[in-house]
């Protein structure tokens, strides 16, 4: 499993609540590398610890159908504290192993499992790596609940801002991703079983679990739309989150558009030799 810990998925501390607002939390792809939707022949694997909660959520999100596609692409405009954090296009394989982020200014970031490559004119490699894994992981989260290294257990509080949910807590095996001490609490709608909210802590950047638990956050998934029969949220809202109070302060938001499954070839995710590596 490759992004689980950044907000597991290398979530370099949703630097969302310390430092500047932009560091809190939180163009076109080569048409020769992309065609139309194509399916793979491998059946998606289910995790041996999958439970009823995970099974229902994955069924609601059509996980098997999602993973039968090769890759998905979408435009994203992401802001925190009123500042634009990302404006561009994300292309990722549905299994999360490889991807490319093309910024509106033409800068590109490639990730290939544990390696990240970026346009040489870009600065701040740590922040680049954070973004390379974080934003695709948020998008893919509902389809990664039974990845290897994931563990689920009951979570006692099913209420969030006066609404009752199905809830469970996600933790990770030691050695899973960069930050196995991260955890998530998934809130699934009781009627649709779609993920409405995922609360989390981030231990990246040297924070201990105890320190991270002093400032947990959450991502809210809104405005699901059907893309080739698969429900995908078009809008995200980032919040401060507290166990008893729920979603407290809005921190940022993202709008997704032009969401589509695409075909990719063997060279789509190969970074140019001139690119730097984090």
Please write out the topology:
Elements lengths: L51 H9 L2 H5 L3 E10 L2 E11 L4 E6 L4 E5 L2 E4 L6 H16 L9 E5 L4 E2 L2 E10 L11 E6 L5 E6 L8 H4 L4 E11 L2 E13 L3 E17 L13 E2 L1
Antiparallel strand pairs: 1-2, 1-13, 2-3, 3-4, 4-5, 5-14, 6-8, 7-8, 8-9, 9-10, 10-11, 11-12, 12-13
Order of helices and strands: HHEEEEEHEEEEEHEEEE
Helix-strand makeup class: mainly beta
Q: In which range does the helix fraction lie?
A: 10-25%
Global outline: globular
Number of strands: 14
Explain briefly what this protein structure is:
By secondary structure, the chain is mostly beta strands. It is built from four helices and 14 strands.
Structure description:
With 278 residues, the protein is mainly β. Strands 1, 2, 3, 4, 5, 6, 7, 8, 9, 10, 11, 12, 13 and 14 form a 14-stranded antiparallel beta sheet that branches. Strand 1 and strand 2 form a beta hairpin. The N terminus is likely disordered.
List keywords for this structure.
4 helices, disordered N terminus, 14 strands, 278 residues, mainly beta
């Amino acid at each position: 499993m490759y992004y689980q810990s950044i907000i597991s998925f290398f979530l370099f501390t949703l630097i969302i609540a310390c430092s500047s607002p932009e560091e809190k939390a939180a163009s076109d792809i080569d048409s020769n590398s992309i065609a139309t939707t194509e399916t793979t022949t491998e059946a998606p694997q289910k995790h041996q610890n999958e439970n009823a909660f995970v099974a229902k959520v994955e069924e609601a999100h059509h996980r098997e159908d999602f993973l039968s596609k090769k890759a998905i692409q979408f435009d994203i405009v992401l802001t925190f504290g009123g500042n634009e954090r990302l404006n561009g296009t994300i292309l990722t394989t549905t299994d999360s192993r490889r991807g490319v982020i093309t910024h509106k200014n033409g800068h590109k970031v490639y990730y290939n499992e544990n390696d990240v490559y970026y346009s040489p004119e870009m600065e701040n490699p740590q922040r680049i790596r954070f973004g390379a894994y974080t934003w695709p992981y948020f998008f893919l989260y509902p389809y990664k609940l039974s990845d290897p290294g994931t563990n689920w257990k009951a979570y006692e509080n099913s209420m969030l801002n006066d609404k009752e949910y199905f809830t469970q807590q996600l933790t990770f095996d030691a050695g899973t991703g960069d930050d196995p001490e991260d955890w998530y609490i998934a809130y699934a709608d009781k009627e649709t079983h779609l993920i409405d909210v995922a609360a989390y802590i981030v231990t990246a950047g040297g924070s201990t679990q105890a320190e991270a638990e002093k400032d947990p956050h959450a991502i809210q998934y809104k405005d699901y739309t059907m893309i080739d029969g698969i429900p995908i949220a078009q809008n995200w809202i980032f919040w401060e989150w507290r166990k008893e109070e729920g979603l407290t302060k809005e921190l940022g938001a993202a709008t997704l558009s032009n969401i589509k499954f695409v075909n990719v070839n063997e060279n789509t995710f190969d970074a140019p030799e001139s690119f730097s590596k984090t």
